[in-house]
Amino acid sequence: MLDNLKQQFLEFSGQQHQNVFFAPGRVNLIGEHIDYNGGLVMPCAITMGTYLLTAPNKDGLFRFKSINFEETLEIPLKESYEKTGKEWYNYPLGVIHNFLQNGKKLEGLDLLYYGNLPIGSSLSSSASIEVVTAFALNKLFGAGFSKLELVKLSKKVENEFIGVNSGIMDQFAVAFGEKNKALKLNCDTLDYQAVECDLGDHYLAIINTNKPRKLTESKYNERVGECQTALKALQKELNISNLCDINAETFEKHKNLIEDSVVLKRAQHVVEENDRVLQAADALDQNKLEEFGKLMYASHDSLQHLYEVSGTELDTIVEFCKQYPGVTGARMTGAGFGGCAIALVKKDSFDDFSKKIKEYYTAKIGYAPSVYSSDIGTGVVEL
């Protein structure tokens, strides 16, 4: 594949590439809609992601090309940039803008992207593009940012340049992922621990609903607001900065402060899901996959009934997984409203699982899902 990308770069740029970078996508194993509530999440990097080939040019231009989209774009080097429309190149453009706002000197560059992550599928294709661009610019122009600073810069791009109020989990997992390990990440302090994630005789199956999801067009920002409302209510009696500063027991004692029944459900999910991450880390640490699988199902049930972000497509996938004997656990992953589910599937059952879930889903939804098997991969790297 890389040979093909190198040839395409030559055709696009008229010169040989000089560097190749890769940033993975991510799945969140458990801990959903926690990252903007200051709690614990457990993402891992996957082996699919975004490739970026670069070479300098002397034309004072940023030349963007993606194998995944039609546009080829030439943008003159300026002091700042603004988002235009919904095109994919806003993500690297936002990174360039933030480098410039930080006083970093950039020069003309040809950039060719290729991603094998399904777009809008909750596998963090946007964070993958942001981080691979930031990592490349940092290396090529000697900007001197630490990896954590690149993560924070990429999150700022997502929040302020793109306009999505997401937390830091996606960019963090894309940058810091480790092979065969999950990251137990505290989204408030950014302290993290790499947790052994030996899946043994299981694959990590990724099942894409093939229902495109656009975060800025979904109810994602609405959920953020509901959590902020719950926090303000609890702060009348509790000295807390985030919903995840309390456990389920404390929440139970003070939940009467939240008068809106919908807001109450949102907060209950967040607090209980945060507790589940701690339990999941212990289960993985002790190699108790069956226990971890039960926590995955409990997480999905909460996202379906309390947080209400799953939808018919994701529920149909998990419904099938619960009745299929070769599956140990399953849940939606990512923001929801479409996107992907993940499942722990016995390796010797995977082909049969893939065939039967497609039949089951198609009969209910009217079109087929896509099913992938993935290993747990490493974070952003120069190849």
Folded structure, characterized:
Helix 3 crosses helix 4 and helix 4 (147-162) packs antiparallel against helix 5 (169-176). The protein is 41% helix and 22% strand. The chain has eleven helices and twelve strands. 49% of the residues are buried. The model has no long low-confidence stretch (mean pLDDT 93). The protein has helices at 2-13, 90-101, 125-140, 147-162, 169-176, 220-234, 248-254, 261-285, 289-305, 312-323, 350-365; strands spanning 19-30, 40-56, 61-66, 72-76, 109-115, 181-186, 192-196, 202-208, 327-333, 340-346, 370-374, 381-382. Strands 1, 2, 3, 4, 5, 6, 7 and 12 form an eight-stranded mixed β-sheet that branches. The chain has a four-stranded antiparallel β-sheet with strand order 9-10-8-11. By secondary structure, it is of the alpha+beta class. It folds into two domains: 2-194, Ribosomal Protein S5, domain 2 (2-Layer Sandwich), CATH 3.30.230; 198-374, 2-Layer Sandwich (Alpha-Beta Plaits), CATH 3.30.70. Residues 90-177 form the GHMP kinase N-terminal domain.
Topology summary:
Layout: H1 2-13, E1 19-30, E2 40-56, E3 61-66, E4 72-76, H2 90-101, E5 109-115, H3 125-140, H4 147-162, H5 169-176, E6 181-186, E7 192-196, E8 202-208, H6 220-234, H7 248-254, H8 261-285, H9 289-305, H10 312-323, E9 327-333, E10 340-346, H11 350-365, E11 370-374, E12 381-382
Parallel strand pairs: 3-5
Antiparallel strand pairs: 1-2, 1-12, 2-5, 2-6, 3-4, 6-7, 8-10, 8-11, 9-10
EC number: 2.7.1.6
Organism: Pararcticibacter amylolyticus
Site (Transition state stabilizer): 26
